[in-house]
Each structure stands twice: as C-alpha cells, then as structure tokens.
C-alpha cells in the first residue's frame, strides 16, 4: 500500500471555487450550508482520477463540458489551476477551455521526491496543448508509482441509492473483487473475497452493534449461474436466508460504509459524501469512531449536513465551507475559533448549529 500522504490541495477556478488552498490532515470533515461548495470540492477527487487515467475528455464531455468545470464558465474563468501536494511529491497543471467545449492542458508538471533533501527528486513536464495528461505513463521511481496509484484509487463514495433498482441489491459478477465500487455494486463479491480475513470478522461484529439481529452474510454464487452473486444474509432466530432488499435503507448504507472503512487494505484516501444519510444517531457515533480509528492509516475527506455527526469530531478535524462573494471558501477550524466554548457542554456540531463557527446560510 502507498505510504505517500496527501498534504495539500490548491485550486483556482474549479467549479464554485475561485481560489482555495487547504491543508489535508488525517480527518477532514466539511460542514456548510446547501450549495456552499462541499460537493464541488469532493468532485475534484473524481476529476483528478479521470485526469490521471487519461479519461479527462470523456469525463468532461459527459458532465456538461468545460464551462461546467470553470468558475462561472470560460468567459469569466478561461483557465483553472490545480496543485496536489503529497509527502513525496506534487502534481500541478493548468487547464484552459478550447474548441468543442473541451479542456486543454496549458501546462503540466510532476515532481517526485524519492530521498531527502527534496531537491534530489525527479521533475517532469508535459507538453502544452494536449487533451489528456502526458505524465501518468512516466513513473521511473517508486514514489511516482505510489502517487499515481493513490490518485487512481480516489473515488467519491456516495451510498445514497437504496431503491429496488440499486446495484447493491442486484446480482453482480463474482470476480469483481479488486476494490469496492463507489456505489457498492460489487459488495457481495468483495465481501466474499475477504471472508477469511480478520477484517471480515470485525465488519460482521460492527454491523451487529447497529443491527443485533444480523448473524452473517451468505456469500455463495447463484445456483443458476455461478458467475454471479447476490448479497444475502441470515437473521437471528430464523433458518431463512434474506437478501439485500430485506435490510432497512440505513442498515444497508451502514454495511457499505463499514465494509469500505474496515476492509483489510483500504484506499489511502477515502472520500465520502454525506455518509450520515439514513443512519440512526447511535450508528453515527459508531461510524465516527471507525473513521477516527482508521485515520492513522487512511485519510478521511467527508462532507456532512449532520449536527450529530459533526459533534463526534475535534475542532481541527473540521473544515468550514461558506459562500462568500459568489465563491466557495474553505477554512479549517482553529483552537481560537472555539476557545470561548471549550470546557462547556457543546460539540462542534452544536456551535455550527448556533452559527458560531460559520457554515450556515
């Protein structure tokens, strides 16, 4: 697994972000009003992944074209700038709107630090005018490979769909086990692939804390087609086998989140959009505890609208997102922001709800 940590993201002209420079820590919980720009920031992780996979043009075109990615469109913001800093290198690029409502690379720069001092690193630059990144294939160092693999693993996990047609409730390929999909469509296959691990036992025990009636998963292929598998499970006191549709929406989302966070080899960075949806307050406390415990090896970047969930975290875990002069702004809470309230019976979420720390309409 990659040892590179994500240290900082600098953005100019990306979606609702005119200019932003934010340091990333083990836990980064975004709070703010609807429309403040939390999801826009999270979407940058998906944007960077598609860029690194040489799929930028397809992604841009299927999401509205270049104007949708530039701050108030190309007339106001013809070029966006982004820089991603890791503990062992950085990636930076400028992208400009061009013909066909596409984004073109104005410049691109990759710098890898293999050893101290950092000046001994490898620096690479791409040619301007390209439609796809020219750098992902050029990794002659272990650090370069680590950074590439980390960006490639970035997904925005958003387990909102629990409708009857949700992919997590439908049969999935039994061999889809490389990583948990962003929509948990391969949850059954993924759980099957880790069922002999200690992590699987921990996942089951954690689910039982929130759903005591849950006994275990039944992770066998379909009888009629062994290439496919459904998510099935057993209930305490019953010999019947139940399927994913028999879970409540909140329980199913909690199972997806627990599997993502407690898997044997989680992503270096986990990006979550509103993980609190449909969860009981007790489940939220369990989820927050998991996030805190794994943050020593996995960075968490998440957005929430839940006061209860925000109450589970320390002030320096919180990034407040506001809309100021038409643009999204982001700032990490400091001790000075909450000093007058320390020692009193208020959580960060309570201060947020009272509009003491910002992040409200």
Automatic annotation (TrEMBL):
Organism: Tahibacter soli
Name used for this protein in its record: AAA family ATPase
Entry's Gene Ontology BP terms: DNA synthesis involved in DNA repair; double-strand break repair
UniProt-listed Pfam families: AAA_15, AAA_21
Alphabetized InterPro entries for the sequence: AAA_GajA/Old/RecF-like, ATPase_AAA_core, P-loop_NTPase, RecF-like
Endonuclease GajA/Old nuclease/RecF-like AAA domain span: 6-51
Gene Ontology MF annotations: ATP binding; ATP hydrolysis activity
Record-annotated ATPase AAA-type core domain positions: 200-308
Coiled-coil portions: none
């Amino acid at each position: 697994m990659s040892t590179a940590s994500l240290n900082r993201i600098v953005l100019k002209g990306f979606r609702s972000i005119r200019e932003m420079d934010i340091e990333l820590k083990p836990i980064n919980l975004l709070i703010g009003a609807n429309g403040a720009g939390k999801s826009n920031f999270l979407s940058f992780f998906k944007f960077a992944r598609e860029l690194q996979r040489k799929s930028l043009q397809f992604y841009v075109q299927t999401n509205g074209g270049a104007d949708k990615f530039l701050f108030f469109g190309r007339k106001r913001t013809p070029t966006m700038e982004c820089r991603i800093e890791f503990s062992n290198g950085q990636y930076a690029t400028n992208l400009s709107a061009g013909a066909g409502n596409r984004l073109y690379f104005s410049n691109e720069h990759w710098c890898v630090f293999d050893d101290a001092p950092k000046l001994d690193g490898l620096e690479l630059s791409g040619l301007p005018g390209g439609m796809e990144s020219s750098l992902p294939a050029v990794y002659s160092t272990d650090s370069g490979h680590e950074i590439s693999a980390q960006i490639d693993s970035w997904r925005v996990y958003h387990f909102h769909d629990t409708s009857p047609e949700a992919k997590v409730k439908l049969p999935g390929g039994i061999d889809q086990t490389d990583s948990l999909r962003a929509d948990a469509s391969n949850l059954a296959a993924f759980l099957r692939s880790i069922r002999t691990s200690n992590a699987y036992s921990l996942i089951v025990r954690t689910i039982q804390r929130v759903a005591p009636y849950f006994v275990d998963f039944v992770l066998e292929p379909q009888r009629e087609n062994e290439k496919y598998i459904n998510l099935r499970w057993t209930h305490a006191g019953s010999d019947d086998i139940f399927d994913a549709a028999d879970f409540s929406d909140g329980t199913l989302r909690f199972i997806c989140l627990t599997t993502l966070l407690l898997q044997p080899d989680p992503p270096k960075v986990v990006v979550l959009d509103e993980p609190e949806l449909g969860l009981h307050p007790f489940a939220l406390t369990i989820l927050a505890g998991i996030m805190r415990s794994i943050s020593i090896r996995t960075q968490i970047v998440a957005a929430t609208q839940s006061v209860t969930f925000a109450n589970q975290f320390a002030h320096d875990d919180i990034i407040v997102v506001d809309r100021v002069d038409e643009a999204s702004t982001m700032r990490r809470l400091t001790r000075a922001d909450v000093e007058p309230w320390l020692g009193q019976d208020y959580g960060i979420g309570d201060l947020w709800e009272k509009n003491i720390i910002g992040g409200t309409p």
